[in-house]
Amino acid sequence: MTSGTAFPGDDPRELLSGTRELTRQVRRTQRATWFPLLVLAAVTFAAVPFRYSPHRLGTCAATDTVRVCTAYPPALLVYWPTALVLAYVVIAAFYIRRSQARGVGTRVRPYVVAGIILALAMTGSLVWTLYHPLAFTLAGPGLFSAGPALHSYSFAIGLALVVLAWAERNGALLALALGYLAVVLVTATVGPVSGHGLLGWPVQLVIPGSVLLLGGIGFLLAQRPWRRAA
Amino acid sequence: MTSHPANGLDDIVHQRVRLGILTIAHEARRVEFSYLRDTLGLTAGNLSQHLGVLETAGLIAIEKGYAGKRARTWVTLTKAGQAALEDEIAQLKLLISRIEPAGTSPS
């Protein structure tokens, strides 16, 4: 009895569906989405105490009509790039170790490279802004803190997660990353531009950090890493 | 008259186990012997035979090494293997479209 193919026993539909199932199986084995989410949640929460670190006056500049000065917390400016680069190194090490234990390659490199580049680019951008106070002139005259802008590192975390979703071909992570970016943008408007609001900074960290934490727990339960993939 | 898509199939790739090896190596970038053996449900000897066929054809590269004291064999897809896999998938899709009336594709 023919199945309609020139290769009995090698039905093209079965072969094709078999390749799709194998692809899904390999992706399930490779994914460890929960780990970077939990690490980055910890990095985000650990940044909260720096909200209370002392500010240092940056530079001042004036036009004919306004005079603008910037201030920034040096500890936070050091914390974010250092913590993020270390976090990405830890994430890469985890994925590589896991890959060797499970016997399948890893797709983490684009994510780690993108994450480190974004962290460093964000730092460069912020340092430039500190020395170009007139970038704040749209907000009017006065003293402007770069503190809230420093929390835009949360945005860099979200962009890197989009890269991880692409690398892992992970639709659920893409949805989470886009939702996270939306939360970061919304919470960025909570505090006043000057960043001296009592709740401004913590909210800008705690809410996005909570999204990462809950997402990490969700993926941990879904991926169940304690059950070795077949 | 165009040739039947079955004529475009490569006998080396158009085989359930070897297609599985190429698919896994493509998705995993680099895959260890034991993962292939367990995932495809093969004996070590059977898998070695199929790997030998694919390596001889230049579709995979085999690298042997150690992880601690444990010997490991890693398999990677070559560019020729990547092209052969893509061609096989395209031919399978073409074949299915030829043998199935429109609108009756399997879920």
Strand count, sense and barrel status of the largest sheet of chain A are: 3 strands, mixed
Shape of chain B: elongated
| CATH homologous superfamily caption of chain B | Winged helix-like DNA-binding domain superfamily/Winged helix DNA-binding domain
How many discrete domains of chain A?
A: 1
- Tally the helices of chain B: 4
Report the average pLDDT across residues of chain A.
Answer: 82
Order of helices and strands of chain A: HHEEHHEHHHH
Quickly describe the structure.
The complex is a heterodimer of chains A (230) and B (107). By secondary structure, chain A is mainly alpha-helical. Chain A is built from 8 helices and 3 strands.
Features:
heterodimer; A: 230 residues; mainly alpha; 3-stranded mixed β-sheet; 8 helices; 3 strands; B: 107 residues; alpha+beta; Arc Repressor Mutant, subunit A; 3-stranded antiparallel β-sheet
Describe this structure in words.
The complex is a heterodimer of chains A (230) and B (107). Chain A is mainly alpha-helical and 230 residues long. Chain A has eight helices and three strands, in the order H-H-E-E-H-H-E-H-H-H-H. Chain A has a three-stranded mixed β-sheet. The radius of gyration of chain A is 23 Å and the shape is elongated. Chain B contains four helices and three strands, in the order H-E-H-H-E-E-H. In chain B, helix 1 packs across helix 4 (79-99). Chain B has helices at residues 16-28, 33-40, 44-56, 79-99, and strands spanning 30-32, 60-67, 70-77. In chain B, strand 2 (60-67) and strand 3 (70-77) form a beta hairpin. In chain B, strands 1-3-2 form a three-stranded antiparallel β-sheet. Chains A and B meet through helix 1 of A and helix 1, strand 1, helix 2 and helix 4 of B.
